[in-house]
Amino acid sequence: MESKAVEFSIQMPFAKEVGVAGNFNHWNPASTPLKKDRTGLWKGTINLPPGRYEYHFVADGQWIKDNSVPNTEPSQYGPTNTVLRV
Fold first, then answer.
1. 69 HSE (CA, 13 A, CB side)
2. Domains, the chain
3. Within 10 A of 44 (CB to CB), how many other CB atoms are there?
4. Rounded distance, CA 51 to CA 33, Å?
5. Could you read off the pLDDT of 26-85 as tens digits, one per residue?
6. d(CA 65, CA 60)
7. What phi and psi values does residue 37 have, to the nearest 5 degrees?
8. CB 12 within 8 A of CB 59
9. Residue 10 above 80 pLDDT?
């Protein structure tokens, strides 16, 4: 199966550190840090094979749901995880 580049982004101008944690990286935000641009948008790209993924952003230790992606499916790990299909 061919992987697809998936971009994650969140506007957090005052955050010092932002990562993305999900079942694709064993829920470890340190393994997928995002980079901040001059406007305060944090973003990064991850290559993921086709499948169903759940994730959260983690900004300065606070877990944040991605509100730009509607959570239209029940989550395996909790009702507030963002669900992404690749």
1. 21
2. 4-85 (2.60.40.10)
3. 15
4. 22
5. 999 999 999 999 999 999 999 999 999 989 999 999 998 888 877 656 666 655 778 888
6. 14
7. -95, 180
8. yes
9. yes
62-64 and 4-11 beta bridge pairing: unpaired
Q: What are all long-range contacts of 44-48, with beta carbons under 8 Å and residues at least 24 apart?
A: 44/7, 44/8, 44/9, 44/20, 45/5, 45/6, 45/7, 45/8, 46/5, 46/6, 46/8, 46/20, 47/3, 47/4, 47/5, 47/6, 48/3, 48/4, 48/6, 48/24, 48/86
Q: Which residues, 6 or more positions from 56, have their beta carbon under 8 angstroms from its beta carbon?
A: 20, 21, 22, 63, 64, 65, 66, 81, 82
Q: What is the CA radius of gyration of the chain?
A: 12
Give the whole-angstrom CA distance, residue 10 versus residue 83: 16
